[in-house]
Amino acid sequence: MNVIFDMDGLMFDTEKVFIKAWDYAGEKIGIGKAGYMVYKTLGMSIVASYEIWNEEFGNRYNQEELRKYTKEFLKNYYENNKVPVKQGLYVLLEYLKNANAKLAVASSSPRWEVEKHLNDAGIIDYFSAIVCGDMVEKSKPAPDIYIKACEMLNENPEECIALEDSKNGLLSSYIAGCKPIMVPDLWQPDEEVLQIIKGKYSDLEQVKVAFESGEL
After folding, report:
1. Domain boundary among 65, 80, 95
2. For residue 90, what are the contacts with CB-CB under 8 A and spacing of at least 6?
3. Are residues 117 and 203 in the same domain?
4. 34 and 98 housed in the same domain
5. Whole-angstrom distance, CA of residue 106 vs CA of residue 104
6. InterPro entries from the xrefs (predicted)?
C-alpha cells in the first residue's frame, strides 16, 4: 500500500489561514482584501499562484510588497498558533503505519514551510519521501510532483493512492497515473474531477474507514 498526501487543505487547515494572510496583505498594499485569490490558486506553488495574481491585478499591485506582508502575517500567526490539523489525520497515519504502507508528501508549498508544519504537528517521521513545490519544474496541475514522489517511493504511479483536496492536485495525480482520492476542503468537485477521482470522503477519518473496509 502506497499513499501520497497533499498538505495544505488536506492534512492541515492552512488554506483558511492563507485567506486571512492575503486579506491582510491586500489591504496593506492598497488593493483591498484579497483572500479570495486562494480559491483561484488552490494546489498551486507560490510561483505559479503569482502568475494568477498578475492576470488578476496586473500592475495594480507590487509582488514584493505582497510577499512581505503575507510572510509578516504568517510569521505572526504561527508564532502564536499551532498548525491547524485536519480531522482524522493522526488516526489515518497511525493506521497506515501499522499496515506497513509507504507514505509520501507531495505539496506545492516550499520545502521550509512543509518541513516546519510536519515537524510542528509531530508527523514528519511517518513519511519516507517529501516532495515540495520548489523541487520540481512545473507546479500542479502538471504531473511532475507526483511523478517525483512515486520515484522517491520506488513505486509505479498505478500502485499509489493520492489524497487531495484541490482540482489542480487531483489533476496532477491523475495525469501522473496515480489513483486520485478527494477529501474536499474549500472546493467541491466539478464534472471534470468527478470523472477522474476514485473516491470522495468527507474527512481523513472516513478515508481510514475506507482502507479498513477494503474499499480503498
Report:
1. 80
2. 123
3. yes
4. no
5. 7
6. HAD-like_sf (IPR036412), HAD-SF_hydro_IA (IPR006439), HAD_2 (IPR041492), HAD_sf (IPR023214), PGP-like_dom2 (IPR023198)
Report the candidate in 214, 181, 176 with the shortest Cα–Cα distance to residue 196. 181
Domain membership of residue 20 as a residue range = 14-80
Count Cα neighbours of 146 within 13 Å in the Cβ-side half-sphere.
32
Given a cut of 90, whether residue 189 has pLDDT beyond it is yes
Helices then strands, counting H and E runs in the chain, come out as 10, 6
Q: What SS3 state is found at 55?
A: helix
What nine digits make up the cell of 183? Answer: 477529501
Give per-residue pLDDT as tens, 162-184.
999 999 999 999 999 999 999 99
Q: Are residues 9 and 70 in the same domain?
A: no
SS3 content of the chain, % helix, strand, coil (to 5): 55, 15, 35
Tell me the pLDDT tens digit for each residue of 103-148.
999 999 999 999 999 999 999 999 999 999 999 999 999 999 999 9
Which grid coordinates belong to 210? 475506507
Q: Scanning the structure block, which residue is given the C-alpha cell 497533499? A: 6
pTM across the whole model: 0.90
Same-domain check for residues 200 and 128: yes
**Taking Cα atoms as reference points, which of 193, 41, 207 lies closest to residue 109?**
41
Per residue in 23-68, pLDDT (tens digit) is 999 999 999 999 999 999 988 888 889 899 999 999 889 999 999 9
Both 54 and 101 in a single domain?
Answer: no
On the question of pLDDT at 199 being above 90, the answer is yes
